[in-house]
Design brief:
Blueprint: H1 5-26, H2 30-48, E1 51-56, E2 58-65, E3 78-83, E4 96-104, E5 113-119, E6 123-128, E7 133-138, E8 155-157, E9 164-172, E10 188-194, H3 196-214, H4 218-230, H5 239-253, E11 263-269, H6 280-300, E12 306-308, H7 311-320, H8 322-331, E13 337-339, H9 354-372, E14 378-380, H10 391-397, E15 402-405, E16 420-424, E17 430-435, H11 447-456, E18 465-470, H12 481-489, E19 498-501, H13 504-511, E20 520-522, H14 538-563, H15 572-584, H16 597-625, E21 628-632, E22 638-644, E23 647-653, E24 657-660, E25 665-666, E26 673-674, E27 678-680, E28 684-689, E29 692-698, E30 703-704, E31 714-719, E32 737-738, E33 740-748, E34 752-761, E35 764-773, E36 779-787, E37 792-799, E38 806-811, E39 814-819, H17 825-829, E40 833-834, E41 838-842, E42 846-852, E43 857-861, E44 864-872, E45 884-896, H18 901-911, E46 915-918, E47 926-927, E48 929-931, E49 936-943, E50 949-956, E51 962-968, E52 971-977, E53 984-985, E54 990-993, E55 998-1005
Parallel strand pairs: 11-12, 11-18, 11-19, 12-13, 14-15, 15-17, 16-20
Antiparallel strand pairs: 1-10, 2-3, 2-4, 4-9, 5-8, 5-10, 6-7, 6-9, 16-17, 21-24, 21-46, 22-23, 23-25, 24-47, 26-27, 27-28, 28-29, 29-30, 31-32, 31-37, 33-34, 34-35, 35-36, 36-45, 37-44, 38-39, 38-41, 40-43, 41-42, 42-45, 43-44, 48-51, 49-50, 50-55, 51-54, 52-53, 52-55
Helix pairs in contact: 2-3, 3-4, 3-5, 3-12, 6-7, 6-8, 7-8, 9-15, 14-16
This protein binds zinc ion.
Zinc ion binds at residues 271, 273, 383, 588-589.
């Protein structure tokens, strides 16, 4: 079989590895080592001889286009006729073409298995002339982790009618990994006979020799002796002779395990990144290709089980390929198709907010209920980059008891200690987690991999069962015939782990038998990799945060509007579409920044449209409901000085409420001050030197918060020779170059004072405006960065005066602590960590909270909070990432003692500033939401599915149990509910929250 240079290189190195092991560990003599290598060559030869060409396929016409065309519109592409093998058909990656293929099956092969062999130098979906999609092809040269097998798919079943061949291929000038390969040259197009016995013999030998490779016993020796014997005659093999040899081998292949053996529950899998090295539009096509391939496999192999997750992927296939989708719906009713996952997409969980996390489950589960009538029970995130501590609690509320991953095997320093374990959120919610012991979701079904997984399985002493996902993935595709053929032979083969096809939920139910005592892991699953993804492609991250707040604000106003019979500017169905699009961009290669530039060009353009529409709708509703004043859409009251139309007012805007200007107090006396190098209000006196803070003095606490002899707000650039995923950790700090201050001034704006510092950092410029307002509790900072850096990372550091072994990082529903020390390899490996709206360092006496409106990457060691602002790494897949203008908002909040609800209050205020309304509504001062405990935060709300009211998402931001009473004007509390709103449990007036607990409380409108 033809192989690319890199495939050959892989095979050579794999062989070399085996030779060395055989010599060292097994003491095998040289002649046997040579024989073993020749057996591989024999298997290769047999695969080559599995197909005998009997005629050509004619590539009559190709209709080429830059973007995809539907089957109906296929003739509108640029026409090219009489293409032949050796011709190049595409210029650019992701070019598309419809190929019209004809031919005639020669007479005399009626009793043979006739196939087509096709390689167009890309991927392709094959259509019958009537427009029915049947099968797919993937080029020889497709990029992949070759240690896991070769992704080639070139064999297509004969679909001729009375010998007449006539079909179409919707081709893509990209391989599985989004590369144009071999210049998109047509490599093969012929009609062949499949020598079924030779092919089956090749699989037999491939499996048997792996028993020899992984065992030292008489059975292995016997296999080796038989294989060696075959070396003498294989080159003259015929299909009939192959059949005879297979009969001789049959007793070996049917030798079963005696007694108990390790067992894999196996599911065919095709990990499909919804965007990565290809744009979203190609994912839609990849989805159709993958599903078509797997439906074909299911028809061929009645016991085969294939699974696919992600509601969004099914939705796309439903919209664009209804014919394939119908077959999927049918297959899902059989034991063959496993519908997996409970979320809209396989999302990132470090970078998304609380309501997003809830909606991933809400829309995901609802989709599968409606379309497949299935209640999804597994959170399926095999590839996301670390897992938020909040996931188990949200899973619990979504009725999802199981979690599957494999990503923790990617840790670079500390091996994650479990494969099967109970996983707990900080609030104590617990789910059952399983990590694939083969350390991959692209299992190759090789003997070596099966044995590796068995040995690697860390709960081996308490369980002899695990799951296995096998097939080609990342760019979709899934198992080829070879995977399934090998899987069958490993079903129960002596001395090898058993491989049993089983749907994921059935497997989970067996693993979680209620009797086995598995270990427990509490808190986040920190991935010791990909820490660059907390920062890369920062515009997407900012837009995601802005969208999350805009959606939250709109949904609250929507509730108020409904009570007032105001027509909604964005109706429920459009809102659902917006939510689903926002959830799509939270996919684990989009939001983290690990896709190609086109993905971001497209998503940023969409985010801008979505945000414009949401903000318009928010203002529209605010104007209809309220008069002139300020609207506070956070669950904390907001007190302070506000500038409205150039006048300063002091106001105390209630939680989720409105204060008209007419009820505000105009500020006549100003108590803030600025000198040449200081700004000052009632709480802080801030002193600057070279544009940086040399003193952050809290006058009330009588404490200095800048570390002794240090400066806060120092902008620096570091060499970043990593890629979009990874910061190269080795001493990157040593390459630090600090920004130079080029201008500094202070500005007095009556009730606020600002210090404006301009910096130059290489080719980049930064303007940082620090502001104190009258009566304000935080020092705000607005950054405008014009970034022009290459292979670099821009950061800003805040060395504090606070000594603490721990730092607190905001997560969707609360905060988690991580060590500021580097006392062991786990602490050291966390050289960069994720956090959301704030990070707080505090001890019994003092604390400092650093709030931001769009950042996620931090390094917090010693007493320094160091924020990753912008990465423009050396490596891709994105190139020249994050150049140009960026705006970032920060705030510092100095406080007494440990972190409290106040840090949350200011974090929400910085992220979600009051809305200035100048409307025509008649609503005056109001606050709909009341809660008597400030630790209980209303994160967001959603109109309830029964339309009687809303479901409030309330969480306790303290680590201790809290009680509260809540009220919502015009509504009564119906009880607590779940994410799917399936049932409402009556609750007492007084609600009790465990530390960091999330509760969903349903409120129903009281009829007037
Ligand atoms: Zn992935």
């Amino acid at each position: 079989m033809k192989k690319t240079f890199s495939q050959k290189m892989f095979i050579a190195s794999d062989n070399a590895k085996r030779i060395l092991t055989n010599r060292k560990d097994r003491g095998i003599c040289t002649s046997d080592i040579v024989a073993r290598e020749r057996i591989d060559a024999m298997v290769e030869y047999l695969f080559d001889k599995s197909y005998t060409p009997i005629g050509d396929l004619n590539i009559e016409t190709a209709y080429i286009s830059n973007e995809p065309l539907t089957f109906e519109n296929r003739l509108t592409g640029r026409k090219r006729e009489n293409l032949r093998v050796g011709d190049r058909w595409a210029v650019n990656t992701f070019d598309c073409a419809w190929f019209h293929i004809t031919g005639r099956v020669p007479i005399g092969y009626e009793d043979k298995k006739v196939v087509y062999l096709l390689n167009l130098g890309g991927e392709g979906l094959i259509y019958k002339a009537d427009g029915t999609a049947v099968q797919t092809i993937t080029c020889f040269a497709s990029e992949y982790a070759y240690a896991l097998g070769f992704p080639l798919k070139r064999v297509v079943d004969d679909i001729s009618e009375n010998g007449e061949v006539d079909f179409w291929i919707d081709a893509a000038a990209n391989d599985l990994f989004g590369n144009i390969k071999n210049k998109a040259i047509i490599d093969e197009a012929c009609i062949s006979v499949c020598n079924v016995n030779i092919r089956a013999l090749a699989y037999d030998l491939q499996v048997l020799i792996s028993v020899y490779d992984t065992n030292q016993n008489a059975f292995a020796d016997k296999i080796f002796a038989i294989c060696k014997n075959l070396l003498k005659s294989y080159k003259t093999i015929t299909d009939d002779r192959a059949e005879e040899i297979r009969k001789e081998l049959a007793p070996l292949l049917s030798q079963k395990n005696e007694g108990k053996q390790f067992e894999y529950y196996a599911i065919g899998h095709a990990h499909l990144d919804l965007a990565w090295k290809w744009p979203i539009r190609e994912t839609k096509r990849k989805g159709a290709r993958t599903f078509a391939t797997q439906l074909h496999n299911i028809k061929k192999y009645p016991d085969y089980i294939f699974g696919a997750s992600q509601a969004q992927l099914y939705q796309w296939v439903k919209e664009d390929y209804p014919q394939i989708y119908e077959q999927v719906l049918e297959a899902a009713k059989t034991p063959n198709w496993d519908v997996q996952g409970a979320t809209w997409v396989e999302m990132d969980s470090n970078l998304i907010g609380g309501e997003s996390m809830i909606r991933q489950f809400y829309y995901g589960k609802n989709f599968f209920r409606k379309e497949f009538n299935q209640d999804m029970k597994i959170l399926w995130l095999p590839d996301s980059f670390g897992y938020s501590a909040c996931l188990p609690q949200v899973m619990k509320l979504a009725g999802v008891p199981y979690f599957l991953t494999q990503k923790m095997s990617w840790n670079t320093v500390n091996k994650f200690p479990y494969h099967t374990f109970n996983w707990q959120s900080p609030d104590g919610s617990e789910v059952f987690a399983h990590m694939l012991p083969e350390d991959t979701y692209n299992g190759p079904v090789y003997g070596t991999s099966l044995k590796f997984g068995e040995k690697n399985y860390q709960e081996r002493s308490i369980s002899s069962k695990s799951m296995m996902l096998y097939g080609i993935g990342d760019g979709g595709a899934g198992p080829g015939y070879e995977h399934i053929e090998r899987m069958h032979r490993f079903n129960d083969l002596a001395y090898m782990p058993k491989v049993t096809p089983k749907k994921a939920l059935d497997a989970f139910k067996i693993l979680d038998d209620g009797k086995t005592e598995y270990p427990t892991h509490k808190g986040e699953l920190y991935l010791e990799r990909h820490r660059g993804t907390y920062t890369t492609q920062s515009k997407n991250k900012k837009y995601n945060r802005k969208c999350e707040f805009a959606l939250k604000n709109y949904e609250y106003l929507m509730l108020l509007a409904k009570e007032r019979n105001i027509e909604l500017p964005i109706k429920e169905d459009e809102l659902e579409k917006i939510w689903k699009e926002a959830l799509l961009y939270q996919f684990h290669d989009i939001l983290p920044g690990s896709s190609i530039n086109r993905v971001y060009d497209e998503s940023v353009a969409r985010y801008e449209k979505i945000l414009t529409r949401l903000n318009w709708a928010i203002n529209y509703l605010a104007d209809k409901i309220f008069k002139k004043g300020l609207l506070n859409l956070n669950s904390f009251a907001h007190s302070g000085s506000f500038n409205i139309d150039g006048e300063w007012y002091s106001a105390d805007i209630p939680a989720m409420g409105f204060t008209p200007v007419s009820e505000m107090k105009k500020i006549e006396q100003f108590s803030v001050n600025a000198t040449a190098d200081t700004i000052e209000n009632e709480k802080y006196c801030v002193k600057f030197e070279d544009g940086c803070i040399v003193s952050l003095f809290d006058k009330v606490l009588n404490r200095e918060f800048v570390g002794r002899g240090k400066k806060m707000g120092v902008f620096s650039v570091y060499k970043d020779i990593g890629d979009c995923w990874d910061i190269h950790p080795i001493n990157y700090q040593k390459t630090k170059v600090d920004a130079k201050c080029t201008a500094f001034k202070t500005v007095d704006n009556r009730a606020s004072v600002s210090a404006v510092a301009d910096f130059k950092l290489g080719q980049s410029t930064i303007t940082c405006t620090y502001t104190l307002t009258q009566g304000g509790e935080v020092l705000e900072a607005d950054l405008v960065i014009d970034c022009h850096q290459k292979n670099s990372m821009m950061r800003v550091a805040f060395p504090t005066s606070i000594v603490s072994d721990e730092c607190n990082f905001n997560v969707p529903f609360g905060h988690i602590s991580r060590a500021t020390t580097e006392n062991n390899s786990i602490e050291k490996a966390q050289f960069e960590v994720s956090g959301q709206k704030f990070v707080d360092i505090s001890n019994e006496k003092l604390g400092l909270t650093l709030i931001n409106d769009c950042k996620y990457g931090y390094r917090c060691k010693g007493s320094v909070i160091d924020v990753n602002l912008i990465r423009s790494p050396l490596g891709g897949p994105g190139h020249n990432v994050d150049q140009g203008i960026h705006t970032v908002k920060f705030a510092l909040y100095a406080h007494e003692g440990k972190i409290s609800a106040d840090s949350y209050k200011y974090a929400y205020q910085i992220n979600n500033e009051p809305i200035c309304v100048n409307g025509i509504g008649d609503t005056g001062s109001m606050s709909a939401f009341h809660c008597d405990n400030e630790n209980i935060i209303l994160e967001s709300l959603k109109i309830s599915d029964d339309k009687k009211g809303a479901v409030l998402r309330l969480y306790n931001c303290a680590d201790t149990e809290q009680e509260c009473r809540i009220a919502f004007d015009g509504y009564k509390i119906a009880g607590t509910t779940d994410i799917l709103e399936d049932s409402v449990m009556p609750c007492k007036d007084k609600l009790t929250f465990r530390g960091f607990e999330l509760k969903l409380v349903k409120i129903d409108r009281v009829s007037e």
